[in-house]
Amino acid sequence: MTDQQRLRDTLQAAVPDPPDEPGRGPATRSRSVRQRRGRRLVAGGVTVAALVGGAGFWATLGGDSGPTVAGTGASACRALVHRVKAGTAVDNRVVDGSTAARWLGEIPTHVNPSGYRDDRQVTVCVTSLRTAWSTYVVGNGHAELVTVGGYNQGTGNVASVMSKLDRLRTGGAPTTDAAFSCSGPPTERYPDVTLDLPSGATAAKLCFDSPFYTPKQVLTQHVDQLVAAVNATGIGYSSPNFICSPAPGDYGYSLVFRYPDGTRRATAETCRGLIVGQVARAGDELDHTFTRLLEHQMLTTQTFHPAAACTPAPHARPTGVGDVRHLVGFRYCAPHTSGTGTSPGGLGMGRIQLWGSAFLGATTQPAGRCTRSPDGLPYLSLSDAWGNVFTMTVVSCGRRELPAILAPDGRHVIYPLGEGGPSIDGLLRQLARNSP
Question: So where are the chain's domains?
Answer without folding.
Answer: 9-41+171-300, 46-150, 327-433
